[in-house]
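We append the chain.
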Amino acid sequence: MSSVDPVVHAQPSEMPTTVRGVLRRQVRSELRLVFRRRRNAAILFFLAFIPVFIGIAVKVSTPKSGDGPPFIFQVSGNGLFLVFTALAVGLPVFLPLAVAIVAGDAVSGEAGTGTLRYLLTVPVARSRLLLVKAAGALAYVAAAVAVIGIVGLITGGVLFGIHPITLLSGDTVPTIDGMLRALGVAGYVFLDLVGLVAIGLFLSTLTEVPVAAMAATLGVTIVFAILDSVPQVGSLRSILLTHHWQDFGELLRQPPHLSTLLPGIFIPLAYAAIFGSAAWARITTMDVTA
């Protein structure tokens, strides 16, 4: 009887553990691939210079009224505002560029090097591959946002000091409250980019040329931004991916209104669901020749 028990009880519990173990190893391998790539490391290094450059510019010459990005006038009085300013500067172009490079290269990069046909052997493996690629791209985007935020906090503290923060609504809150709001702003910016990651992954499944997928992903961002600046587009602008990207300023009011923040959270998630599903449908049915 004892010889039967291990067969009956061990196999069902070992199967999920094996699948989870394989998935963890694949995710770790993908993360090493993404973060060790010199191009990606160089982008993170460049993003780190955004708050440094802004901080030095403000220190050397106080901005005049009407010039510069949002929150820049408050930087000289409180270094915590350098975090908000740097994220506001990075969000329209530099962070989408990082997303385009990593997400656009996710699948098409494997096809371009001829390794995709060995990875995509069965439908389950294809779904798992897409999940691993998405995890790698999202981790990189989180790291990109964190680099800007952390370097901005350190630079702002060194140049201007970190003090209790006076919000845009005129209320003054303790420093720890300001730190939590900075963390909330970083999380909001990350969620803003989740939809673009899904678009990049989908476009990456459509081509074997990584540069084409990268350019198309960045091009989508530019098109959204152009449409968002055209008043004739009307109420349709509210559903554009980029329309609510700068709404994180609401977190610097007391109290913040959820009605202003929720569209900027749900719309990127809706894009992620739509284009993530499209990427899954494409990768599970595509005929791989590369």
Notes: The chain has eleven helices and two strands. Confidence is low (pLDDT under 50) at residues 1-15.
